[in-house]
Amino acid sequence: MEEKNSDEKEVFVQADKSPLDKYTSKGWVKSFIFGIFLGLAIVVPGISGAAVAIIFKLYDKLIYAFANILKQFKACFAFLLPIVLGLIIGFLVGFLAVQQLISLVPFGMICFFAGLMIGALPSVFCEVKTAKIDGKTIALFVGGILIPIIIGLISVLLEDNPTGYYGVQLGEEVNTDSGAIAESLFGDFPWWTYVASIPIGFMLGFTQVLPGLSATAFLMMIGYFRPLVDTVHFSYFAKYPQIFAIYVLMVIGLIAGFIVTSKILDKLFKWNRLAVYKVIVGMSVGSIIGMFLNPDAYGIYLSWGQGFGSTSMIIDVSIAAPLFVIGGLGAYLLVRYGNKHQA
């Protein structure tokens, strides 16, 4: 017993010691590059920011810096500064890249995202590998699968004009001009767009806490992803400055969702971690299916009907399978590499 207490005391002392050393020029650049990859991980679903941190061997330091930012502000701020700068650049570059690519090959990007999420599934499945397969397990898993699928299908059914996200009506040409897709959803910003922003942001925070879930996948399920991406244009900002209020409300909801979900999940894990993860695994699988069953995807399918056999359609469909494989393989290798280095 005394030996155990001694070991625990030693671990406590080591954990209490700050792992944050002063940066060398090489270390600063390394953290900056890590921040860029972290920003990209936020934009692209299926890539875990934690896995990226492990690969760069900065995970423990990152956790320590966030946990002690108030106690050791100067040291933690100095450590986080290059990471945050890189994160902003990575997020903006990733967002703009996704914005352009999803305009060119929308179905191909959906397949790429789905591949990333499938490749990342082992990181979630490892939590339930010891679970006994019985009626309760199957019920929790199936229930988790159905949640995102039902959300996506309801969004399609409630959407009066899902093809409007692509400016497509029977007999009309496809309109993908800057802001046109955003206007199809937000219009002149009626009251409900403001009210809906906080719960949508809350759910984005929810996806950031639960492993295996994706903010991008959720936005696609409710038909918000493509319109929201389309708002990021200077011309749209000038015409509709109200969009900044939408951004702020979503961020408020996201922070609230992150905090509330973290507390609830912590209690649920203490109650029955395995049962909770069975639902999470199901939701992760359901989110992948839901990426193909939502207003954004439905708009793509209907646009194909308008221009079946067109060059853009052929390119989009032909590139979808390779992007799916690339996304899946890339995410799987990243998760495997991260698990190896974590061990």
Descriptive account of the structure:
The chain is an all-alpha fold and 343 residues long. It folds into two domains: 2-93, no CATH class; 105-331, no CATH class. It is built from 16 helices and no strands. It has helices at 2-16, 25-43, 49-55, 59-67, 73-104, 106-120, 122-125, 135-158, 180-186, 191-209, 215-221, 225-230, 234-239, 243-290, 295-306, 311-342. Helix 10 packs across helix 14 (243-290). The model is unreliable at 1-15 and 162-176 (pLDDT under 50).
Name its key features.
2 domains, mainly alpha, 0% strand, 16 helices, single chain, 343 residues
Topology overview:
Blueprint: H1 2-16, H2 25-43, H3 49-55, H4 59-67, H5 73-104, H6 106-120, H7 122-125, H8 135-158, H9 180-186, H10 191-209, H11 215-221, H12 225-230, H13 234-239, H14 243-290, H15 295-306, H16 311-342
Note the beta-strand portion. Answer: under 5%
Number of strands: 0
Show unreliable segments: 1-15, 162-176
Mean of pLDDT:
76
**Share in helix:** over 70%
Tell me briefly what this model is:
It is built from 16 helices and no strands. With 343 residues, it is mainly α. The chain has two domains: 2-93, no CATH class; 105-331, no CATH class.
